[in-house]
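Help: why these numbers?

___
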Amino acid sequence: MQDRYIRTVIVDDDRTIGDILKDLISKEHISVEVFNDSLEAVKSITREPVDVVITDLMMPRISGLEVLRQAKVMNPEVVVIIITGHGSLETAIEAIREGAYDYIKKPFKLQEMEIVFKNAVEKVNLIREKTQLLKELKEAYDQLVAIKKERDKGDLGQKAEQDRIARLNFFSSDRPGLHLMRSAPMGEPNYFEQLENISMLKRDGLLTEKEFKTLKAHLMKGLKTHE
């Protein structure tokens, strides 16, 4: 899903490396900004969240780990790639613990960075798709509950009911990426109430057996997570 551009920030006090990386990853749907001053990079990131950060580890004023932390504050889903010429097992572990997506030692091959960045972009798109699927799931669920309430009140004619249900095609078996909703968080809903509601929807013929099982599995996972 590439419904908007992917904002990428490169932070490296070596201007040459920054320019080379920008030329390497720049594409039509990717916005790239290079900062040779890590403090200025952090200021920019706090003004506008970014999707991907490529940052050197050892820099004057602010370290790459601090750039990572600030980027995570603004966007917890940001994908951060750490690059450094002073790598060690300890710094790699610390970077991963702080939430780095990958860790690359200098000197690195451009092809290596290209592959890592491509994977980072795919992860960003996957997160966006998951978010969109969850939004559509909630909308479909809310509409089904509304139909149930209107039916109980006798305010919904049979033809109108069939038309509205027909438009709720979120649960189509050929929907791409439907499996993603099973591993995505839903915030802090009342899981017991939702389980009761989908049971009533199934009983009243508004959900098929397959749709019911899919929703139930997702809700039960959320329930266990929040126990």
Residues 131-225 form one domain. The helical segments are 15-25, 38-47, 64-74, 89-97, 110-153, 158-167, 191-203, 209-225.
